[in-house]
Amino acid sequence: MALRAFTSNRGKSPTEKAVRLLGLGLFVILLVAGGIISCKKKAAEPEAATLEKAGVRVKEGINSFEGVVKAAVGKYLYLPSVQGFDIIVQGKIESGDISTLVDKEIRGKGVFTSAKPSILVADSIDVREPDNSWKTVFTRTEEAVLDDYLDLQARDGFPALRDIAYDKSEDWEGKGKVKVFGKLVKPTAPEGGQEKEVEKIIIYDKEDKAVGYVIVDSMTDFAQYYLKKLRLFDNLWFYVFIKDTVEWKTRRLTDDLFHADVLFCSIF
Question: Which CATH number fits domain 52-139: 2.40.50, 1.10.10, 2.60.40, 3.40.50?
Answer without folding.
Answer: 2.40.50
